[in-house]
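During data preparation, a discrete fold description was generated, as reproduced here:
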Amino acid sequence: MTSLGDYEQIKLEQEGQIAILTLDRPEKMNAFTGKMMYELLDAFDKTDANDDIRAVIVTGAGDRAFCAGADLSEGAKTFDYEARADTGEAGRTNKIDIQRDGGGRVTLRIFDSLKPVIGAINGAAVGIGVTMQLPMDIRIAADSARFGFVFNRRGINPEAASSWFLPRLVGIQQALEWCYSGRVFPAEEALKGGLVHSVHPQADLMTVARAMANEIAENTAAVSTTLTRHMMWRMLGASHPMEAHIVDSAAIYSRGQTEDAREGVMSFLEKRKPVYPVKVSDGMPSFFPWWDEPEFDWIGE
């Protein structure tokens, strides 16, 4: 594997067409800090900019934890950003930085990712350790993993935009029961509740994650995958299916004129593996990102 950055609390490595992002504080059960937040933001900037990367796997170092939540070493002032503002630990430099939830900055950055994101949840995942997973596209878990939306038991509240993500993933009733109680629950319950896609023996977890990532990387067009990711996620908040129809139509009209579409059809007819030439870095349709275009209605390129 090739290292893609010099980080202190995470690792970012490239393996073929896959990036593997590892939360790397195993002695602290990969607990979340301000430093980790900034490193994660930078890592997703790198994976977005690298056309050779087709999917990102996020996991934790060691066998004990994916991420055991916020680092509580600051004791009573752990969640008091004002009290910690002069320590520099959180990396917060102004009033807006001080007031913004760091977990939310991470989940919003993952939400904006141009590449599919697979969570390989290898152990304990509580607090931000579970909410940072929510904007990941597919989550698979080790059979030893445990999850907990423990915020109410710490005198705070769910963060990381989880009040938007969680009910959309698992339904409002399940989301509220997990958050009201703050209890820690096993991987099988996470599977039953729809939080994870599948549960696997610890030793098989990364093999399964790599297989999922490679299935995407080896068989699909990069631009099509990026469009699909954002069409699906952003339509969760649409008020009418016509919003989806408008974007679908613009995307099909645009993509249908590309070398990717021609290659997709011809490789199928010729019974060979496709080689898609269009890159995310310079081949996205002109209407992307459509959600930043207030007048976007119907676009034909």
